[in-house]
Write a structure and sequence with these properties.
By secondary structure, this protein is of the alpha/beta class. The chain folds into 2 domains: 193 residues, Glycogen Phosphorylase B (Rossmann fold, 3-Layer(aba) Sandwich), CATH 3.40.50.2000; 172 residues, Rossmann fold. Strands 3-2-1-4-5-6-7 form a 7-stranded parallel beta sheet, with helices on both faces. It has a 6-stranded parallel beta sheet with strand order 10-9-8-11-12-13, with helices on both faces. Helix 3 links the parallel strand 4 and strand 5. Helix 8 crosses helix 12. It is elongated and about 70 Å long.
């Protein structure tokens, strides 16, 4: 198949999943064309059967905000024609599903059928899509997609509740992880020793937006460290980084917190961690939590959204009420017991591989694509 994929190329779960999906599809013999305004952050600059098409956005004085959605629709149309795409797979409803529908209608006028598959990831439904400015167009774009997927059952239910899309069946296809990459045994102890100096390593990876509650991560760490030596590694960047740094200084733990900034290749970091701290107030799935589990890292998280579909409470991690910093700290301390950590680590890696391995999930997408093409 020849597949066009559009995603946000910046640091974040939806772009990471879309990129990894494209790479996996190409490895299985498909031709993949990424269409976006920038090279996706997890996409190497050359892979067989993988192509990148940049969206050019005209900057005319008339436009205070250049219409990216229209430029994207034109680029989708042009790439579909030039490379004879079989379908478009867009990640994140706004504006990608809207642009794909426009491109599809343009191609229909030229006698070409182009199925559109839309994958819903989370904030496109829970925040952006429910904003009054976008709600109607989000609902319209979802309903005009030929096939719709959601990354969790929770997100499917939330989409139906928020938009009343009872006539547009949504298939749950979860995010996935490559067990050959996120494999603790693949990496030695050198990085863990460098980061922790022999002490346990707590970790958090995100885009540091308010929804990630990175200040809570610092507070959890401070409570754990008050009872035993450990270090905290913070990976990523964003608007709340300064607040997290200030909180670390205020609590007197700044010397034990490592802010590493944005890092694209995170598998070696996960392999150096002992516990992953994930206190987000809203998560439709939690890709970073899955990558931690696959790396044998127990996850301590807030019981929100789709996270309970990923983390098995008391087995592969612990789920606490949102904002329960003390409870999370207690759970982290529990997993730092060597015998309990070994048990949870083994369970986490085995469960991630059994339920979310790349090959199984990509095969689900291949079946969905074939179904969409048969129905066009």
């Amino acid at each position: 198949m020849k597949i066009g994929i559009t995603c946000y190329p910046t640091y974040g779960g939806s772009g990471a999943v879309a990129t990894e999906l494209g790479i996996a599809l190409a490895a299985r013999g498909h031709e993949v064309h990424f269409i976006s305004y920038e090279h996706p952050f997890r996409l190497p600059h050359f892979l067989p059967r993988v192509y990148f098409h940049e969206v050019s956005i005209g900057n005319y004085p008339l436009f205070e905000y250049p219409p990216y959605d229209l430029a994207l629709a034109v680029r989708m149309h042009d790439v579909a024609l030039a490379h004879e795409l079989d379908l478009l797979h867009v990640h994140y409803a706004i504006p990608h599903a809207t642009s794909a529908w426009i491109a599809k209608e343009m191609l229909r006028e030229q006698g070409r059928a182009l199925p559109v598959v839309t994958t819903l990831h989370g904030t496109d439904i829970t925040i952006v899509g429910q904003d009054h400015s976008y709600q109607a167009i989000t609902k319209f774009s979802i309903e005009r997609s030929d096939r719709i997927t959601a990354v969790s059952q929770w997100l499917k239910d939330e989409t139906t509740r928020a938009f009343g899309c009872s006539d547009c069946p949504i298939e749950v296809i979860p995010n996935f992880v490559d067990p050959t990459v996120f494999d603790r045994a693949r990496y030695g102890d050198a990085l863990r020793q460098e980061l922790g100096g022999g002490r346990p390593v707590l970790m958090h990876i995100s885009n540091f937006r308010p929804v990630k509650r990175v200040v809570d991560v610092i507070r959890v760490f401070a409570r754990v460290r008050a009872q035993q030596p450990c270090v905290l590694v913070m990976v990523g960047d964003g608007p709340d980084r300064h607040a997290a740094e200030e909180e670390a200084r205020r609590l007197g733990v700044a010397a034990e917190v490592r802010f590493l900034g944005k890092i694209d290749t995170v598998a070696p970091l996960f392999a150096a961690a002992d516990v992953y701290v994930f206190p987000s107030e809203s998560e439709s799935f939690g890709l970073s939590a899955l990558e931690a589990l696959a790396s044998g890292v127990p996850v301590v998280a807030a019981r929100v959204g789709g996270v309970p579909e990923v983390v098995r409470d008391g087995v592969t991690g612990a789920l606490l009420p949102l904002g329960d910093v003390e409870g999370m700290a207690e759970a982290v301390r529990g997993f730092l017991d060597p015998s309990r950590w070994r048990e949870a680590s083994a369970a986490a890696a085995a469960d991630a591989r059994a339920r979310f391995a790349t090959g199984d999930v990509v095969a689900q997408y291949e079946r969905l694509y074939a179904d969409a093409m048969d129905g066009r």
